[in-house]
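Appendix B: complex inputs.
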Amino acid sequence: SYVLTQPPSVSVAPGKTARITCGGNNIGSKSVHWYQQKPGQAPVLVIYYDSDRPSGIPERFSGSNSGNTATLTISRVEAGDEADYYCQVWDSSSDHCYVFGTGTKVTVL
Amino acid sequence: EVQLVESGGGLVQPGGSLRLSCSASGFTFSSYAMHWVRQAPGKGLEYVSAISSNGGSTYYADSVKGRFTISRDNSKNTLYLQMSSLRAEDTAVYYCVKDRKAVAGHDAFDIWGQGTMVTVSS
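Resulting structure:
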């Protein structure tokens, strides 16, 4: 089955840039979606189709995808961005297999 | 306001059954595929099951195949998950999730409910 690997944690100072990677075999050929989950809350979609932002998501959130790595970038990080972030793809080689990454805890210093 | 509200969670013994429901409002429920995603305590997200907008196609993770059944009643704007032969490893918060499209596929999950807790324990 398809595996998505994320770093367990990323720490960033306020106002700086956080980059969260999502590694997978030839992930650049797939559509990657990103979700933010704050403690005790349901996940929220922050990036879809690699780099599109849903309405209401700040422009500080951006995404890219190429080769074996997809990246979620959070610019000008704020305290409110502290959360777990998950990448997700649909693995068409399996029977409608949706795969989530292992998750990354973003800590704002 | 677009909203998904899950219900039906609780404590059940191993081998038991439970039916989860998800009531949808604020959007045309019958136009979108729907999903269940779960999260064990302190763990990451795990995909469980999907159903197309008209209910004609269903999909399951290998971990629940043969034990769980997803269904929907578009006249009642409600999604269901019938769970049987429950195991301790099924203990999790179960989220009802809306797809951006009618057919389950490579699109994203744009609306999530608040989840309902299922605990499988004797």
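Chain B touches chain A at residues 35, 37, 44-47, 50, 59, 61, 95, 100, 104-110, 112-115 (CB under 8 Å).
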